[in-house]
Amino acid sequence: MSRTQVAIVGAGPAGLLLGALLARAGVDAVIVEQRSADYVLGRIRAGVLEQVTVALLEQAGVADRLNAEGLVHHGVELSFGGARHRVDFEQLTGRHVTVYGQTEVTRDLMHAREAAGLETVYEAGEVTPHGFDGTKPSVTYAKDGTTHTIECDFIAGCDGFHGVCRQSVPAAALQVFERVYPFVWLGVLSETPPVSAELIYSNHERGFALCSMRSTTRSRYYVQCPVDDKLEAWSDAMFWDELRRRLDREAAETLVTGPSIEKSFAPLRSFVAEPMRFGRLFLAGDAAHIVPPTGAKGLNLAAGDVGLLAQAFAEHYAEKSDAGIDDYSARSLRRVWRAERFSWWFTSLMHKFPETGAFGQKMQDAELDYLVHSRAASTALAENYVGLPL
Ligand SMILES: Cc1cc2nc3c(=O)[nH]c(=O)nc-3n(C[C@H](O)[C@H](O)[C@H](O)COP(=O)(O)OP(=O)(O)OC[C@H]3O[C@@H](n4cnc5c(N)ncnc54)[C@H](O)[C@@H]3O)c2cc1C
After folding, report:
1. First to last CA, the chain
2. What's residue 175's pLDDT?
3. Exactly one of 141, 293, 316, 328 is catalytic; which is it?
4. For an engineered disulfide with 303, which of 53, 242, 321, 378 has Cβ 3.0 to 4.6 Å away?
5. pTM, whole model, 2 decimals?
């Protein structure tokens, strides 16, 4: 039996960043994670950080390496009809994004937590939140053959889409909105220089492709695939051939290929569970919402949620005010729905949808043409891509 102020379930970016922000605010927290630290670090996921996310990492005191090694991007390129068109974020919005892998964000947060002697329980089994509809919540977990109990004031459910916290809420108290897309992304990570200094989003008749990166020597590429494709059927050579076909001629000719160091499918889903608070349980990040990765919003939304949550808990303890706590769900959801809309729109614009046929392609062509020739339309894309304010 132990006691803390905030019990955090999940040591992904949401849980770790919340822990770091709370430590800065003088609020006690313990993180309980079902996997090992190495397993968490081995997951290859997001890579584009909004300025709001970078500011939160700075506030948490974990941005030194990010500021030294992160790649500042002032725009992206849209590829269609055999040509590339740049959308200049800096010119349109005065803002930018930073490319820095989620794995590195997680590593920095874990190291800082360890260095500060803050408690994280890894490899915790049967993690369960209790009593969050009353005044004495707790979290239990099994470790080394014993059941442990953490008594707390609040529980933060930062345990991702498949986590236990959302599932512990009575179904009648939750409203769920969902769309599953009829394709997946096949992603390859390779130790090769990126084909372009900025991300290339390609709309092609064979399907969507994305050229992204994690550093100047490490690239991350994706191609849209049917949902029933098998990973074993995709050799590295097949992947590179398919990617080349979906790029403009210059990019296809300069693409440097190499062995994949990670290759996986990612499903595309839009999902929101409302509300994000149930008594003393608060959901944050993927536990409450999922976006298709096209708009690079998943990690940024998770950071925004815990930014608001940390502030709300800090006000509760320091100022005896529950205004932030009471406002958390509505305030987060407003931002979440805007990012859901943008991610859904950008996904709809860039992918080949089996059911929309030639008419659908013509609509996409016309919209892309409008997008790159209208300052208003380009600004709308840029404004959403760099991220809306908290
Ligand atoms: C394959 C994949 C690719 C992605 N690519 C991109 C991308 O390119 N761009 C982008 O913006 N976003 C991407 N995302 C989304 C982005 O990675 C997530 O939005 C982000 O990880 C959310 O952070 P989180 O902390 O909320 O959840 P997670 O990162 O999922 O962390 C949740 C943590 O909780 C732990 N957990 C789960 N259940 C329990 C339990 N019962 N008890 C204790 N701990 C538990 C998990 O092990 C995990 O460590 C991708 C996601 C996936 C799955």
Report:
1. 37
2. 98
3. 293
4. 53
5. 0.97
